[in-house]
Amino acid sequence: MEINSVALGAVQQELALAGFSPEDEKRLKELEAFRITPTKELPPVEFLFRFHDRPCFARGELTGLSGKAKSGKTFVCSILMALCFRSEVLSLQRIEPTRLHVMWYDTEQSDESTKDILCQRICQMTGIQQDQFPSEQFDVYNVRQKPVNERLPSLEVAVRYRKPDLVILDGLRDLVSDINDGVIAQNVMERLMHLASEYHCAIVCVLHQNKSIEDHNPRGWIGTELKHKAFEMYECAKSSERIFTWAQTDTRKYDIPEGLSFGVDDDGIPYRCTEKQLLEAQFEAQRKMVAKLEKSGGRPNKPYGDLNPKYAHKEGRKHVFDVKLLFTDIMTPGQPYQEDVLKTEIYSKTNAIKDKIHDEILRQAVNEKVIMQSKNPFGKKEYLLPMPEPIQQDLPF
Fold first, then answer.
1. DSSP class per residue in 317-335
2. What distance in Å separates the CA atoms of residue 114 and residue 106, rounded to the nearest whole number?
3. Which of 183, 316, 334, 369 has the fewest CB atoms found within 10 Å of its own CB?
């Protein structure tokens, strides 16, 4: 809405009387372009992907991806990059019908590692032959050898020239010489936000979490700034040697309550992992941890784990398990279960870690006639939850 000359003159006179300089007047006039009103028309947020039917990875915004060392962050980046060329990868879908232009800006790995992931993993996941690699749509840069102070300016020039839809910045920490310098961290994040907004691209910033097992915050002041400025935050975690989980932790728009569990095959290609496979992997990892501690003469801090109070309580120094409730929840009456399957389910329900505890629970259930034990034709133990007895009803005579 334009201000007529009379009104403009009155406003200028009022500002002059209030001690505002011509420079102040200029700033106030410019500020009007940033005014938000209920009737102001704004373009809708555009998203690149859909995760469990929820839009994610917004254009013009930063997305944070964090995790401990070797927790699967680069695997997730590979999934996102492959998704730019395929309509669906695992449980993620690309929203736009056409291929996306992606830029991978690797600051951490060696040239050989970057090329190996590109050739042996990403090309395999996309189905693209190496001799037909679409360099006009996929920019891969390894800048580990560039000086720290040149990495961000080079990224800005590359984005300005190539205009990608998705930028994978792996990793954010290597754009600064000191991750705990608040001034530098704020400046870097401001420049990345401006870059994403001006060129309408989604920038995924990969950053390690703090080293403490309990601390899941992104590392350093740069991590704090990322968490404050990012449109979304995601976290990667390692569940076992070759199984990982990936989930959203923060968002400004669409909550994605369900995460993604994925395994990695012998060729290094991610695949969708079932809940059963995840539980078995977690169970096996816990067993190995306990066995390793016992072999070295140590003892786990919580041999029972953080027990589920639904199935266990403590009487003095002894833990008591409600085996009838436990196996009723685990087993289908009349269906045989092998011992290894039941132990995985016992771990899942009770959180008891040690294999010895699982044996004791099974023994208790058999002794109390909650379940029946037998052996199948191959000599393996099997357990059965009896069918419930029919309810007797008095017949009218």
1. TEEEE-HHHHHHHH--TT-
2. 7
3. 316
Q: Look up residue 377 and give its two tokens.
A: 């034709």
Q: What is the pLDDT of residues 81-137, one digit of tens each?
A: 999 999 999 989 999 999 999 999 999 999 999 999 999 999 999 988 888 889 899
- Sign of the Cα torsion 110, 111, 113, 117 reads positive
Long-range Cβ pairs for the range 275-280 (8 Å, 24+): 276/344, 277/243, 278/239, 278/243, 278/245, 279/344, 279/345, 279/347, 279/348, 280/344
Could you give the C-alpha distances from 165 to 60, 138, 268, in angstroms and in order?
A: 9, 10, 26
* Backbone torsion region of residue 297, taken as left when φ is above 0, otherwise alpha when ψ lies between -120 and 50, otherwise beta: left
Please report where in the chains the tokens 């390894």 appear, as a residue.
142
Contacts of 107 (CB under 8 A, 6+ apart): 143, 144, 151, 169, 170, 171, 173, 174, 175
Q: pLDDT, tens digit, for every residue of 38-60? A: 998 988 999 999 999 999 999 99
First to last CA, the chain: 91
| Whole-angstrom distance, CA of residue 353 vs CA of residue 119 | 40
How far apart CA 156 and CA 175 sit, in angstroms, is 12
